[in-house]
Amino acid sequence: QEEPELVSAIYGRGIAYGKKGLHDMKNAELALFELSRVISLEPDHPEVFEQRAEILSPLGRISEALSDLTKAIQLQPSARLFRHRGTLHFISEDYATAHEDFQRSLELNKNQPIAMLYKGLTFFHRGLLKEAIESFKEALKQKADFIDAYKSLGQAYRELGNFDAATENFQKALLLNQNHVQTLQLKGMMLYHHGSLDEALKNFKRCLQLEPYNEVCQYMKGLSHVAMGQFYEGIKAQTKVMLNDPLPGQKASPEYLKVKYLREYSRYLHAHLDTPLTEYNIDIDLPGNFKDHWAKNLPFLIENYEEQPGLQPHIKDVLFQSFESYKPDVQELICVADHLGSMMQYETPGFLPNKRIHRAMGLATLEVMQAVQRTWANSKVRMNGKTRVMQWRDMFDIAVKWRRIADPDQPVLWLDQMPARSLSRGFNNHINLIRGQVINMRYLEYFEKILHFIKDRILVYHGANNPKGLLEVREALEKVHKVEDLLPIMKFNSKTRDGFTVNTKVPSLKDQGKEYDGFTITITGDKVGNILFSVETQTTEERTQLYHAEIDALYKDLTAKGKILILSAEMGEVDAVCNLILSLVYYFYNLMPLSRGSSVIAYSVIMGALMASGKEVSGKIPKGKASLVDFEAMTAPGSEAFSKIARGWMNLKSISPSYKTLPSVSETFPTLRTMIEVLNTDSSHCLKKTIVVV
After folding, report:
1. At the N or C end, where does the chain have fewer CB atoms within 10 A?
2. Does residue 690 surpass a pLDDT of 50?
3. Which PROSITE patterns does the entry link to (predicted)?
4. Final residue of a domain: which of 489, 512, 538?
């Protein structure tokens, strides 16, 4: 046993090395060596373990630091130790365990705004937004000028889709510190996704004044400029992001990965600002490998890639058009579009209303309506430089065109137009419903429905492969109320021990009795009970062809019935047309043929085609339950069931005659320039003049 003062001397040296600079590996190693000696001599001092944990955690040795803190807690529990350990669990993304530690820390000392903030963040990261908001508010009661709590509160409201409450809290954070870069960045992001590009830009510019190398703000500044048609400024900002090469061994930021695609796409859009939209096609023009890498979010390593030409000086940027500068009938067109677009808003937590997308998709709906009416009256359309009879893909392409220009950040591309190589491997549209402890809020309402479906499939599976154990499985399934309860049932069969996949089936209308693959539900679990619960659609060439044949047959039928409908509007006819439209889109939803945006594109086609048949959607997509139309289609047992659900809430009414007098969307906005202009224009006047068609 060494003399006590020697131990304290060693301890003092250990702390001194630790303080001298943890960024210096040598000092850190020395400190660890000294502290470990102290522990071997006197193993019952909690503060030595805590000291050692403080040195281990910045070195990334989290599990060692955790076991040190656990020892310290066993020796002498304190609020600080629980908070410290909670923080490490939090960094390791073990939010449930972190939550327990913060909770215990707060029980020992309730006045700890930081522990309260972290407790809220453990809720936030698990998708439990309402509980997170409660904790952030508690933290603010304890510390009124707590900037991070206001920022987190703003973020939680944003995730809930509550724009006003989010804005209010971001504002409060900025009142306390107008230079709070993180808040400026988050507020800018929210404004961009709300469709307020001008306002978003102000925040990104302010952020860059304070932090010139902030990649997120720089990327978003470039994106906002380009979306508004200011290509010179936009490409300048994008180029700055590109110069920010990651150091060797450093992971490239998401912005760095995306910016090269955005810059190439921006150059392409700029070059086509004044080319009539009917004369070119983005899916055909952009190189196959470029589209493939962009949609899959891969690093930009494309062999023999030929860059898009730089900006041509004779093509001017898009200028701002005031609402008053449009003719009265076009003003009305814009106001009607805003109204139609707002009908598509999901009233579900997690969906922030986006005015720009609303206007774009409202105009798409009207353009689809006009194109379908012309087709039924035996007129042709002009697409991709050819005048021909409109096909079903052209109808969707109208909506694709508007969705693309509303947010150039997202590649909205037809997957079957990708290079053959990338399709043969299959394209996965993947949505995580639960990843570990992280729950995807948006789809919470569907868990039960999907769970029910999985239980049925498990019974069918065991009925075929394990008839003896069927009763036991059935009894076990009775007790399953949450997705994670399925994990023990997986153990009943060696094949499904580590997890299983269930495929939904989509019945054919064309060939009775035939079924196609819908989407795949995967559940896997590990020993710790971390679960991955996800759905994806596999886009393979064969699957695509089966669906196309189905949609072709329905479209042919729809066109024939539409032509009769235009001549004689009998109730029975309208009904049949309505069912054909919904069935056609049911297959589109299950096919998921686009890299992004399939959902809102399909919905505007439904609305536009129904309007062509003389029916208007007057009901909003209902709150909560049936709010995600794509999920409704994917979980419906067949097209008739989907039609019935959708008609239940669409509340179809006869269309008002004033739609007939609206000007032609494709003639009013014949180029990208005119489309961007109309998306930029401010239409707050619409509310004053109630010319919205009632």
Report:
1. N
2. no
3. TPR (PS50005), TPR_REGION (PS50293)
4. 538
